């Protein structure tokens, strides 16, 4: 089974009834899978291609250049480079938060780069020098703005689909506090993965509102099959020469806002489906580009009034998006 693939132009340029139909299908796919694929997402193809190529250029820098902009471990938004093994996604799984101890030895075979809003003075970004990587910062800042815009549009559609007052989601996301990420999974021996202590990315949910994801042709991203909890199915890369497909998943903040009406999509990165039966050899390197769309730092991530009633009590506490981010980032290390 592949994920529903929705054409976003129907929301952007469609008639009122097309906008309503798109929004209903979007909500349904999120309720069923926690995931959707969007085509004609409005992001220039050329820009997405350059974004993915920039990931290769960045991770090909010498280690010293990457370590110069290393992310300081700790409970604050991530900025700059995180080396292989720095982050342990196994700890992020909501139900594992209390029983973290046994999860300490599970590592991710992944390095990544994170950037927050352009010009963020509270948590400044860390860029490689212009000499080392010409144009990288400019491109990332442009992508950030475009990704933020498309996420706001998805929030608009969710307001329609969930029959929420216009602006009730969108207004919680301005000014921007999202994060852009580049992921690199180095080539790895299948035997290492088979040992069970290292995975490309352990099952987890992301902690923002929604996540946008672009992947190369290697494959390996998997989402939980909600019909058979605990099992996973592949989110296959789009056609090689076709237009880019944007994968979108629901993250914890949206689950909290809707008091579990729309739940976050559990996902992992595993061995690509074509190599599952193989016991020897190497898993090729893989790149992905991600945008963690987040709520404004002072906004509450407690359930919205519309999802709480006498019969339906609030499942989550009223803390700010920044406090929640700090709590979750603290868990990662
Ligand atoms: O690389 C991928 O496809 C997924 C990575 C991921 O889940 C994350 O960075 O949160
Ligand atoms: Fe993720």
Describe it for me?
- By secondary structure, the chain is α+β, with helices and mostly antiparallel strands.
- It has one domain: Sandwich (Jelly Rolls).
- 27% of the residues lie in helices and 19% in strands.
- It contains eight helices and 16 strands.
- The strands form four sheets. The chain has an eight-stranded mixed sheet. It has a four-stranded antiparallel sheet with strand order 9-14-11-12, with no helix packed on it.
- It is globular.
- It starts with a strand and ends with a helix.
- The model has no long low-confidence stretch (mean pLDDT 92).
- The structure holds 2-oxoglutaric acid and fe (ii) ion.
- One of its GO terms (molecular function) is metal ion binding.
- This is Putative gibberellin 20-oxidase.
- Residues 175-295 form the Fe2OG dioxygenase domain.
Can you summarize this structure?
The chain is an alpha+beta fold.
Main-sheet strand order equals 1-2-13-10-16-6-5-3
* CATH architecture descriptor text: Sandwich
How many strands in all? 16
Q: Unreliable runs, pLDDT <50, ≥5 residues?
A: none
Query: What gross morphology would you assign?
Result: globular
Run of helices and strands: EHHEHHEEEHEEHEEEEEEHEEEH
CATH level-4 homologous superfamily: B-lactam Antibiotic, Isopenicillin N Synthase, Chain
Q: From the alpha carbons, calculate the radius of gyration and give it in angstroms.
A: 19 Å
């Amino acid at each position: 089974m592949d994920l529903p693939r929705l054409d976003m132009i129907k929301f952007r340029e469609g008639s009122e009834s097309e906008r309503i139909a798109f929004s209903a299908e979007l909500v349904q796919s999120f309720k069923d899978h926690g995931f959707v694929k969007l085509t004609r997402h409005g992001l220039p193809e050329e820009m997405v291609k350059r974004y993915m190529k920039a990931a290769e250029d960045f991770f090909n820098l010498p280690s010293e250049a990457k370590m110069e902009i290393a992310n300081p471990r700790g409970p604050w938004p991530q900025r700059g480079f995180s080396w292989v093994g720095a982050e342990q996604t196994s700890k992020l799984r909501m139900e594992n938060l209390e029983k973290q101890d046994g999860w300490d030895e599970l590592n991710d075979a992944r390095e990544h780069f994170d950037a927050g809003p352009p010009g963020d003075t509270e948590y400044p970004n860390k860029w490689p020098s212009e000499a080392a990587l010409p144009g990288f910062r400019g491109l990332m800042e442009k992508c950030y703005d475009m990704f933020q815009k498309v996420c706001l549009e998805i929030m608009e559609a969710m307001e329609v689909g969930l029959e929420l007052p216009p602006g009730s989601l969108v207004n919680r996301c301005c000014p921007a506090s999202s994060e852009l990420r580049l992921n690199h999974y180095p080539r790895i021996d299948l035997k290492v993965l088979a040992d069970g202590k290292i995975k490309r990315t352990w099952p987890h949910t992301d902690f923002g509102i929604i996540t946008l994801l672009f992947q190369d042709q290697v494959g390996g991203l998997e989402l939980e099959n909600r019909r058979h909890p605990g099992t996973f199915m592949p989110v296959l890369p789009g056609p090689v020469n076709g237009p880019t497909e944007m994968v979108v998943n629901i993250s914890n903040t949206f689950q909290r806002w809707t008091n579990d009406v729309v739940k976050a999509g559990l996902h992992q990165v595993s061995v690509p489906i074509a190599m599952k039966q193989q016991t020897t050899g190497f898993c090729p390197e893989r790149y992905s580009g991600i945008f963690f769309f987040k709520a404004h730092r002072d906004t509450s991530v407690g359930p919205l009034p519309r999802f709480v009633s006498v019969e339906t009590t609030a499942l989550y506490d009223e803390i700010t998006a920044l406090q929640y981010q700090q709590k979750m980032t603290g868990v990662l290390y």
